[in-house]
Amino acid sequence: MVLFIDTNIILDWLQNREPFNETSGHLVQECIKENFDGAMSAHSFADLFYILRKDFSAEERFKLLLLLCKHFKVVSENKLMIEFVINYEKYKDLEDGLQMECAKAVNADFIITRNINDFKISKVPAILPEDFIKDHCAE
Q1: Cα(35)–Cα(25) distance, rounded to whole angstroms?
Q2: Whose CB has fewer CB within 10 Å in the chain, the N or C terminal residue?
Q3: Statement: the pTM of the whole predicted model exceeds 0.85
C-alpha cells in the first residue's frame, strides 16, 4: 500500500507537536520499517529544510532529509503538473494541488494529512493519521 505523506505529518513527528506527534511518528516508522510504501513530494524537502531551521542545525536537517530519502519515494513535480494545478479552477492552493498531483502520480492509496478538508477534490482519498492507523495498522 502506498501512502503519500503530507508535509504536516513529518513536521508533527520532527517537531514533536502535541497531540499529533505520536500518530504521525507511528506512521513514519511504519514507512521506515517498510510495512507501507511511503511517498513525499520533492517540494516537501525544501519546505522541511526551511521550516525546521529553528529546531535543527543545517547538518541535522540534511541528515533527517537523507533518512527520509532513504525510506520514502520522492515524487518530482514537473512543468505540466504545475501548469495543470494553476489552470485547474478547482485547485485553490498551489501547494495542496501539487501534493494531490504527486499522490496521483505515484498511484498512492491514501494521502495522510491532518488537513483533509484541503484535499476534498483529490482523486486520492485523504485520511487523518489516527483513522489510517485504526483501520490499517495491526495493534
Answers
A1: 14
A2: C
A3: yes
